[in-house]
Design brief:
By secondary structure, the chain is mostly helical. It is 65% helix and 0% strand. α2 packs across α4 (57-70), α2 crosses α5 and α3 (40-54) crosses α5. The termini are far apart.
Length: 114
């Protein structure tokens, strides 16, 4: 075993250091693909649709937490916009479900919680 391996060092690229780093890398790769197709607005929408459609709930929770904690540090502009779109849509869906059940979001302005 080499000295580096004994020290716990791996030869994994930086993008694989943490789950959040992998998600940032993936979102950026997806956005670059859609960006290569033309319009930035369409690239953002395509990236958002891909993330919404194919990322599992734990991936979404992690990237949303990253967005809320750091403002989306490390995300390219199109990826950041896409994550914000999915995040805002998800919040809107939750709000709509609460309202349909006769409840309201605890994050509404003026509430004791906010």
């Amino acid at each position: 075993m080499s000295g580096a391996a004994m020290d716990g060092e791996t030869h994994e690229p930086e993008i694989h250091k943490s789950t959040v780093d992998r998600l940032i890398y993936m979102a950026n790769q997806i956005s670059q693909f859609f960006e290569s197709q033309g319009s930035e607005k369409l690239a953002e929408a395509g990236t958002a649709d891909h993330i919404r459609s194919f990322w599992d709930p734990s991936m979404l929770r992690r990237i949303f937490a990253h967005l809320e904690e750091t403002g989306g540090e490390g995300l390219r502009p199109i990826a950041l916009g896409a994550v914000k779109l999915v995040h805002d849509a998800k919040r809107g869906a939750v709000r709509a479900r609460l309202e349909a059940a006769g409840m309201h979001s605890s994050l509404e302005p003026g509430d004791d919680a906010g």
